[in-house]
Amino acid sequence: MSNPLLQQLNDLEQEFETKLNDLSSDTDKLTQAELLNFKSYYLGKKGALSEILKGLKSVSPEQRKEIGPRANELKDKFLNRLDRELKGLEINEINQKLASKKIDTSLLERDLALDQFAGAYHPRNLIQREIEDVFLSMGFEILDGPHIEDEFHNFEALNIPADHPARDMQDTFWFDKSGNDSEQSGHLLRTHTSTIQVRGMLSRKPPFRFIAPGIVFRCERTDASHEMVFTQLEGMMVGEDISVGNLIYFMKTILKEIFKKDVEVRLRPGFFPFVEPGFELDIKCLICNGKGCSVCKQTGWVELLPCGMVHPNVLKAGNIDPEKYNGFAFGLGLDRLVMMKYGIEDIRHLQSGDLRFNTQFKAY
Ligand code: DAH
């Protein structure tokens, strides 16, 4: 005896397969919503499978025994197929998203235009940081001081009294000198970072050692090696029994770190009112190795670092007993150092703010 419900189930299976194949072959139509509609059409409460099973009432018990397992088999099969399609759909969506956000690893990390906006350290800052690191590692503090100073800190405390001709060595920018305005008279833009020696001495007790980098101002005619605004790095060490040997050791160490090789140095006598004895420390020219070139003016040596043993009058002005303590001080011209290190021939480049110059020194 033929079983009409079984026949209907077989037809339904056929139809399900064909329609699902149709749907999944058209990627535009195949969406999650479409698949869920499909599922409820065949397997929902009022879906095609349930409709067929309503006919169970009118078939014989033997036929019913055949139909039950077949109906379950179909249900499982449909669920499995739909599940596979849904998973495939999800994977497809993920792949599509990935494809649209693909990272092109062959692109350069930054292009030139971006680099200019990203900013970079000025070569002076690069060297300053390097020097600060080395001095910090040798136990020095880093101090700062004001750009506007009074005569006491810029001159008097440094053993340069009002009538001393050494004042003429550092022509500077004065605020109102008429004396009409008592707030401003006697104030100036600092001519050197040595002012911070005074501030450092007055605010601590020996032994101490510190450096003090900063910009300074002088009323100069500008040319390839002179600027009105430039940078110095002052250093001072005060304690008991400090010698010229200590001074040379620290200076050689720092120069070795900066130039990444041993540099030969020589000391010449030099006059600065705040040190006694005072020296000019020269380094053997790194451009020509001492043979003589335009950078060292054919002498084989480059003047780099004025320094000396702190004058007793300066210690006294800093409230330090010169009978008990002594020390050394130095004033490194940072701009000249930058020029030597990077082979820059004109100091004015440093202040120009020209991106074509600044962006050549990249370190972020
Ligand atoms: N302040 C001096 C200048 O600007 C440089 C200097 C010379 C600093 C000798 C020092 C030093 O500390 O000991 O010309």
Describe it.
Strands 1-4-5-9-8-7-6 form a seven-stranded mixed sheet, sandwiched between helices. It has a two-stranded antiparallel ribbon with strand order 2-3. The mean pLDDT is 87. Helix 2 runs antiparallel to helix 4 and helix 6 crosses helix 11. It has helices spanning 4-25, 32-43, 48-53, 61-100, 112-118, 123-137, 151-154, 195-202, 244-259, 312-317, 334-342, 355-358; strands at 141-142, 148-150, 187-189, 208-217, 229-239, 265-269, 275-284, 301-310, 326-333. The termini are far apart. The chain is of the alpha+beta class. The chain contains twelve helices and nine strands. The radius of gyration is 43 Å and the shape is rod-shaped. The protein has two domains: 4-100, no CATH class; 117-358, BirA Bifunctional Protein, domain 2 (2-Layer Sandwich). It binds 3,4-dihydroxyphenylalanine. 3,4-dihydroxyphenylalanine binds next to strand 8 and strand 9.
